[in-house]
Amino acid sequence: MTEVKPRLKHRGAEVIAAADACDAARSLTKLRLQSADIPLLPLKTCDRPATCRCKYRHFDDRRAGSRRENEEALVPAAHQGAERRRRSGKRESDWK
Would you call 56 helix, strand, or coil by DSSP? Predict the structure, then answer.
């Protein structure tokens, strides 16, 4: 029985422009897109479609880095000042 690989939700790819690539292919380098959004090669605007040697580089995740690179900035520091609240709770019994 063959093993079924799970479909990855954010699979992506980028175009690797060949050394003699057209300007359209060069404009797509280092641009990660979801696999469904990657244009077919040779590109429609390629001026050398018969000799195009551009290719794709596939990624399991189209995102280049962590989404939470600086997670510490999202968590506020604990309050260090004096307590300014007059009441300690929300119930009337807490006020007495």
Answer: strand
